[in-house]
Design brief:
The complex is a heterodimer of chains A (282) and B (279). With 282 residues, chain A is mostly helical. Chain A has twelve helices and two strands, in the order αββααααααααααα. In chain B, helix 3 crosses helix 11, helix 6 packs antiparallel against helix 9 and helix 7 runs antiparallel to helix 8. Classes of the chains: A mainly alpha (282), B mainly alpha (279). At the A-B interface, helix 1, helix 3, helix 4, helix 5 and helix 6 of A face helix 1, helix 3, helix 4, helix 5 and helix 6 of B.
Chain lengths: 282, 279
């Protein structure tokens, strides 16, 4: 029913914009990663594999990447640990308060990242709220120094930020489970635990995969929480990229790291998609 | 699901839920309380409750300049992402063209990609184009990244649109342009307002992409960021409290629109299905 001209009119403008502002920048990132910087700080447009060689040989990049992945893995684990039972409660137990609870979960999701990271900084600092509270009630005599400027602070803050991201797809998956399947399981004599492990959990796996992907990918690339709360031991891979694009001025090397991250993220998305298809029963 | 029973597991589950909500909201609560604290951002219990920090805030020129910049950026970025996101959703719904799957994946990628990658790749584009960094580059960055939100929201609205109305309009002699403005857009009104609200809020709060595209003039989050590195006062709690309240209003409004729209109130299904599945 739609004419050629109509379809062209709705397709060409967004397509052109996406090619210019999304595709071209990624291609440029690819190009930059094969260039280099001359001693007088100009970008040399000579194709070479030097940056990737440096990434492969210098252990600092590998170690930081592994540390970032380890932080992201912990964030994912805690986000699922908090998010799954919450989603389960909302979907199966909350009754008519479901709507209210749902809003309560998504509000922090859209509330400023910066506001929340800052809140944790004021809580965890050596004269922050938590330390002064602990001294006030005489649990500790001196401030606990490990709270702020540590990987712990980064994991805690990122878990706070990404738990709602993990919650959403799990909740959606639980909501889509036909309720008569659950009832049938009961009628056939399964205990609530058996029903959970054999019916509900397997059917919610696609949501868990999507939630885990969100939490892992977004926390892996984070650089603001480590800058604000991480200290030297909480540095993540994106912080190296930031310094390479700033004071250290080596855009090509920074582009090479970014491209590796992009590759990692895209392959994770593909993997999650495949696994999800395998697990969805319809 | 009463038949799942009220057993001990059930009590644990309620406790867990309470704990998670506490975890999600306690920091925000602390933030708000300490915006009234005369003694600074730390220190338990809060003492000398005062409105001084709000007075300092209202007299703080640079904060309000950056707020104005942010409003300007958010409004323009909203227009750009809607102007491109609405046709993009229509194209995904009703056009077939080579590279459609790739197009869809590309549009939605900024939703799931860490902001640093979107920000840096655009930085390289602007450098190659010899564009000076300014609020304009931030607008282009936000506008581009948030097309994803406009597209998913409008696409969800289109799924419920009755095409018979458009067909009838065309049969009765209206041209495509008239049909678009008189039938398609009014039917998508709620989705579009919802998308606009969401995009505006997200742009106001955005920091990871702006971080790389900033010129001489700051947006509000970057102004705050700059101050955080120099040392913190409850004035930052005060501005954060105000930001929180405005985000809260916008989100609740958006949610109401969503439910009125008879859409499933979950943002997750479309968002997840469309980011993870390219069909």
């Amino acid at each position: 029913m739609f004419s050629r001209a109509y379809r062209a009119a709705i397709t060409i403008p967004p397509l052109a914009w996406v090619v210019l502002f999304l595709l071209t920048p990624y291609v440029l990132m690819f190009c930059f990663s094969f260039w280099s910087v001359s001693p007088d700080q100009n970008i040399v447009h000579q194709w070479n594999l030097g940056n990737y060689g440096e990434l492969a040989t210098k252990s600092v990049y590998r170690e930081t990447l592994f540390r970032s992945m380890w932080i992201a893995a912990r964030v994912t684990f805690f986000a699922l640990l908090l998010g799954y039972p919450l989603a389960f409660y909302l979907s199966f137990r909350a009754g008519n308060r479901k709507d209210l609870f749902y809003q309560l979960v998504i509000i922090p999701l859209w509330v400023s990242y910066l506001v929340r990271a800052y809140a944790w900084k004021t809580i965890l600092g050596s004269d922050g709220v938590l330390n002064t509270l602990l001294q006030y009630v005489h649990v500790t005599r001196h401030p606990l120094e490990f709270l702020l400027y540590s990987p712990f602070a980064v994991v805690l803050t990122l878990t706070h930020i990404y738990t709602p991201f993990a919650f959403l797809p799990i909740y959606a998956a639980l909501e889509h489970i036909p309720r008569n399947l659950v009832e049938a399981s009961h009628d056939l004599g399964a205990s609530p635990a058996q029903t959970f492990w054999r019916v509900i959990l397997p059917l919610s796996i696609p949501g868990v995969l999507a939630g885990a992907t969100f939490a892992f990918v977004l926390s892996l690339g984070d650089f603001l929480a480590p800058l604000l709360l991480g200290g030297p031991s909480g540095i993540m891979i994106s912080n190296i990229v930031v310094s390479l694009f700033g004071a250290a001025y080596n855009w090509p090397l920074g582009a090479a790291i970014s491209l590796c991250m992009l590759g990692l993220v895209v392959s994770l998305l593909f993997l999650a998609e495949r696994l999800e298809k395998k697990w969805s029963f319809s | 699901m009463a038949m799942l029973g009220t057993r001990p597991q059930s009590r644990w589950l309620s406790l867990h839920t309470l704990f998670v909500f506490g975890f999600l909201y306690l920091p925000i609560l602390v933030l708000i309380v300490y915006s009234f604290n005369g003694q600074g951002v730390g220190g338990f219990p809060p003492r000398n409750l005062t409105l001084d920090w709000y007075r300092t805030l209202f007299a703080d020129g640079p904060i309000w300049d950056s707020m104005l910049n942010s409003l300007l950026v958010a409004f323009t970025a909203m227009l750009i992402s809607l102007a491109l996101g609405i046709p993009a959703a229509l194209a995904l719904d009703r056009a077939h063209f080579p590279g459609k799957v790739l197009f869809r994946r590309l549009v939605l990628l900024p939703l799931i990609l860490p902001g640093i990658i979107t920000g840096l790749s655009l930085l390289m584009l602007f450098r190659q184009a010899e564009m000076k960094l300014s609020l304009v580059t931030i607008v282009l960055g936000h506008g581009t990244a948030l097309i994803s939100v406009a597209t998913t929201e409008v696409f969800a609205g289109l799924q419920k649109l009755d095409r018979a109305q458009e067909e009838a309009s065309l049969d009765l002699g209206a041209n495509y342009w008239q049909t678009f403005w008189r039938i398609t857009i009014p039917n998508l009104k709620l989705s579009i307002i919802g998308a606009a609200l969401l995009i505006f809020t997200l742009s106001m709060d955005e920091i990871a992409v702006s971080f790389f595209l900033i010129g001489r003039e700051n947006t509000l989050p970057l102004e705050i960021w700059g101050r955080l590195r120099r040392g913190i006062t409850p004035e930052i709690n005060a501005i954060s409290t105000i930001i929180f309240l405005f985000s809260l209003i916008a989100i609740v409004l958006w949610y109401r629109l969503r439910t009125r729209n008879e859409a499933s109130p979950e943002i997750a299904p479309e968002l997840v299905e469309s980011t993870l599945q390219g069909t």
